[in-house]
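REVIEWER CHECKLIST
Item 1: Sequence provided? yes
Item 2: Single chain? yes
Item 3: Sequence as submitted:
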Amino acid sequence: MIHSKDLDPHFKLLIAKEPGGENIKKCFSCGTCTAGCPVREITDRYNPRKIIRMALLGMKKEVLSSQFIWLCSSCYTCYERCPQDVRIPELMNAIKNIAVREGYIPSAMKIQIELLSAFGRLLEITEFENDKRKEFGLPLIQGRTEEVKKILKELGLQHEEERGPA
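Item 4: Structure as written out by the authors:
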C-alpha cells in the first residue's frame, strides 16, 4: 500500500533538472514505450511506463532502488515511438545518475568499480597477455589506475577505503 507521506512530490522536478530528464512530465502513460521494448521480450517484468509513472507519483525510494532502471539497453525504440517526445533512454540515465548519487548502486556495478579502481580497467591484464603481446612486438598493457581513480573520485564512486573519514 502506498501512503502519501512516503511520496516525494519533488522527485519528478529533480529528474527534470537532470540532463535527459527534461521531458518526464510530458509522459501520459500510454504504454507505447513498454509495448515496443526489446528488453521486455527477455523479461516481461521490465516496464518503462511503470517506472516513469512511479517517478511522476513521487515514489522516489521505490524507483531509485529498483533493479529495473538498470535494464534499459538504450536502443531508442521507445523514443522513436513515443508520441510525447519523452526520450526514455536518456530519462533512464537521468534516474540512474540520481540513484548512484544517492547510494543506490547495484552490486554488479560495485564490482566493476572495484575492478576499475584496482586495475584501471574491467579485466586484470595478466603476465600471460603481456608475454603474448611482447612476443608479437606489441606494447605492454598497463593499468591506468591513477587516472581511473581520479575519474571515479570526480564521479563520487571511489572505493569505500579511499573515501576517508566522513
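Item 5: Key structural point noted by reviewer: The chain has a mean pLDDT of 90.
Item 6: Recommendation: ____
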